[in-house]
Amino acid sequence: MVEVVVFAVAGAACLVGAVGVVLSRNPVHAALMLVMTLFGIAVLFVALQAHFIAAVQVIVYAGAIVVLFLFVIMLLGVDRAAELSLGALPAQRWTAAAFGLGGAAVLVWLVAAVDRIFKGAHSYELERAGIVVTEADAPATSYATDVSAIARSLFSDYVYAFELTSLLLIVAVIGTVILARRSYGADGRRAGQHGGESAPAESGATPQKARQ
Amino acid sequence: MTGDPLFADGVDWGDIGIVGIKVLVAFAALLVATMFMIWFERKLISDMQHRIGPNVAGPWGLLQAFADGVKFFFKEDLRPANADPLVFRLAPYISAVTAFVAFAIVPIGGVFTDTPGRSGTVTLFGKETILQVADPPVGILLLLAMSSVAVYGVMLAGWSSGSKYPLIGSVRASAQAISYEAALGMSVVAVVITAGTLSTHEIVRAQAGGVNEWLLITTGFVPFFVFLISATAELNRPPFDLVEAEQELVGGFHTEYSSIRFALFFLAEFMNVITMSAIMVTLFFGGTAGPVFFGWTWLWPTVWFLAKVFAFLFVFVWFRATLPRLRYDQLMSLGWKVLIPVMLFWLMFLGLRQLVIDQGWSPLQEVVVVLGVSAAGLALGWTLLAAALRAAKRNTDSEGLDDHDPEDLMPVGASPDDAGPGGES
Fold first, then answer.
1. What residue spans in chain A does CATH classification 1.20.120.1200 cover?
2. Residues 6+ apart with CB under 8 A from A24
3. Which residues 267-326 on chain B approach chain A with CB closer than 8 angstroms?
């Protein structure tokens, strides 16, 4: 009963947020709707006993990534009535519709397949099929286990994938810095050295200019 | 045994009632504490500046904050014509709610022991429970989640006001909060590595063996100082209060707010000071640990906890009275070039020590591994950092891209005498 209510509320929040992201005319409102969706997903994670993932969801996605989105929106000063309808690619609508329908079909197929597996099989059959069923019925002892389980699989089975992903992120960061610096250097503008922070850096630098 | 023993045998209506009482008591206590914190700060700072401070409303001006609150309720609630109506109303609530929620994970009482089995519990209405609103499995991560959500309050307030000073204030605030969250998170990681748990209840219990087991000492002081500095920055308290630098930004992100919405921001700010002090006590100073003398044994831990929190509140006010405000580039270089590298090195050191403990190596191996690898890592990291700083300095010198003073690329501590924009002109 409680699970159903939690799922209904969190799922509704996710859906309303997702629709809101698409429909909001104002980019800041769209970003806030995205936060609502992320919170709904975090609640669903908690309902699934994946507490650590829920916390990370809030800290990383809601706390860092969307804040960065908002930061960029505010710094660029996107107007509230920004017209987003210009320059649609030819056949963009049809392609988007085709991909959307295809994605929905795959999703439905996936849900149906998973449903069939879990309805048709007892736990020993799942075990024989290689799916390990852990003691999900002992919430009192599973407090730290989702953290240590994640750590164990990240640093054993998926260690190469994990390290390669972090390498990819570093390459992306360095690439961004180089691209940003080059574009500032080429037209010789006197801009803040750190592209994204130009407004605070300039306001912070005012007293220095006065001193020099 | 982790988690609240209240829920060990299922949940009934009595359990829900107890949780409701805990929430109400924590809410009310935090509100009252915030009111007295405002009075305390004003009174103490007056004393440090040889003034009298509030002395009219009530004995020693004790009711000043209450009187201010009543006044806020009856003031006109202004909303600028340019403001985004919905977001403008939403922002103060985000600030206030996150300030309340973060306090829920602080254990405020209970006698903790380091023996196996339950400890730190009290009996309420015949049911054994812990004296904290919640002990979620993610524990201290809730603090990080709430402090990252709290950024929205400040950011949206500044943006939705439709005015330039709040916007500059909120951009500053969010950049500052994001920068210092990294150092804050890493010092929390140091605590989690050493205590071996995320739960605040268990963290307090890991420190129950006496002062030499407090995480302040077992993590080696550095994480505490990094936490203190980053917490001050997260709270936008002086000397990191560029967000509301009066000389530059009028009131910062809340310039356009008035009446009860302003009061909510004010409340959230002071409540966050109390929460951060309580978190510091929990993480580094043994939480409720302290000698139990006589009489009511359940009362002493709460007394010790409150005394320690009070000491930190004093420290925050002391900071405000003593330290001049940093410049924005100093703030950024302190965060990114000092605190984060120091904390990264310290995490490596603590990780090595934990590895040695887990593997059960001999003392000789321990010294060789911990000191050898730490020294190698320190040398490598220091060389890379120095090279990066030199390259950055060379670039700025040759390209003339930036008019920053070259010495600003050095750590802030190296040149403390040029802090504060006020003294320069």
1. 1-78
2. A30, A33
3. none
